């Protein structure tokens, strides 16, 4: 007897086989019944002629509740009535777990289910092939990111997620009690990955959770997400960072289009690989586009969701889905971003994808005196950043880096309507469970 994990590998001539899965549906026609058995790879039809398998087995199998977990043993036959071209004639079965009735939500029912219901019953929602396929693609995407950065000499690192200070000293921090001290959940590995630039680990990356205490209930914001961060030393300019991001993103999008064909077919999506090189727009150019589009922003204002969308629509008309936005006003950027000497601008950038920011980064200020001056300019006390500044006091090479939201990248690639579609168990201001 063979236990098969992949029902698509079953073939006529395999003899007696055992398949495992969930009872997706049962159709009882009287003298014959059909049971759809689903595993992570697909569906096989269990065909039950009453006269052939016997009344007792027929009655037991047809009385099973949908989504019960069973193993079915039997003989594989050819069939031109099934998607696989095969069917299983059962000789015995084992019930591992009977599903309660009624189900909290359907798996194959053609009924719209609200997002809250889906998330409250995520274990059931993930049984849907089109939902599961998204997370298989997400897994592939992370593997492709790691493949790309390792090919370019990056070392994977793991930085603390409990910190004494925020990377930007902002208010978007979750404060926690750390024994008798106050601490914060990490909003970014920014300070740590910059410190590592002083060690000789001149190219590092991290893929890990990040936390933002934003009171925002939109389809693009959550309070916990996966961030892909990179930092690289010995850059000549910010353009070196942009070039590296472009190489990585192109590798990921091209790879997912090729390796995820099965999953893309299940969810009915097609990935379009953006042409290279990715265009560069200045902040000032974007401001003009936004103003011409009817949104009255002034110099220094954040483009925001609406502004990003206007720029995205403008670029889409030129056939450009991915583009960098550069030369942001230094006043709007964190202390660690290098100023562009003699101007009001900085060496900061965003990477936008179809009208939404998926990455931000820039060239860092590596000169100790200027870094301290920028801290003070931003109203921060350098004494609060001792461990960070020490790395700059004793020799720091020129460097730059980025942070990319994994889920945002996937959402834009697949044109998903809500970032929660790309997170197994999302966290937002109104959701702490499951």
Please outline the helices and strands.
Elements: E1 2-4, E2 16-28, E3 32-39, E4 42-49, H1 50-53, H2 55-62, E5 69-78, E6 86-97, H3 115-120, H4 122-125, H5 129-151, E7 155-156, E8 162-163, E9 175-178, E10 181-185, H6 190-196, E11 203-211, E12 224-233, H7 238-259, H8 261-267, E13 280-282, H9 283-292, H10 304-316, E14 322-326, E15 348-353, E16 357-363, H11 368-377, H12 386-393, E17 399-405, H13 406-414
Parallel strand pairs: 1-2, 7-11, 13-14
Antiparallel strand pairs: 2-3, 2-5, 3-4, 5-6, 8-10, 9-10, 11-12, 12-17, 14-15, 15-16, 16-17
Descriptive report:
The chain has 434 residues and is of the alpha+beta class. It is built from 13 helices and 17 strands. Strand 3 and strand 4 form a beta hairpin. Helix 5 runs antiparallel to helix 8 and helix 6 runs parallel beside helix 12. It is elongated.
Radius of gyration: 27 Å
The main pleated sheet reads as:
8 strands, mixed
Low-confidence spans: 1-5
Mean pLDDT reading: 93
Please tell me what the overall shape is.
Answer: elongated
What is the SS-derived class? alpha+beta
How far apart, in Å, are the first and last alpha carbons? 39 Å
Helix content: 25-40%
The strand line-up of the biggest sheet is 7-11-12-17-16-15-14-13
Order of helices and strands: EEEEHHEEHHHEEEEHEEHHEHHEEEHHEH
Defining key terms:
434 residues, alpha+beta, eight-stranded mixed β-sheet, six-stranded mixed β-sheet, disordered N terminus
